[in-house]
Please model this.
Amino acid sequence: MARKHRKGAAREEHLHDDDEQAPAPGPCWLCGRPLGKTTVMHHPVPKSRGGRDVVPMHPICQQTLIANFSNAELQRHALDVEAILLNPDMRKFVDWVAKKDPDFHAGTAKKKR
Model:
């Protein structure tokens, strides 16, 4: 069967579409700060646990979240940010990162297991 477009044409069109201003997806799901240039679409309930919903997050917020919670814990909390922020480490992180630039990035600690 013949192709409608030459190989790679769809990719080129997609690159041109990115030049237009796309509306920002809103604030970070975890910390509530405005999103920067880099945004991660995160599954609050892991896909391995049946999660389908995605939320926009900063990369540092996502990395901190998965460093502090197992998939089973994330499944229990689901979309409840307040339950996640009851964890003292997460509350401390969100309070600390609130003063940072939206594009701020730093390394995260390893899992405490």
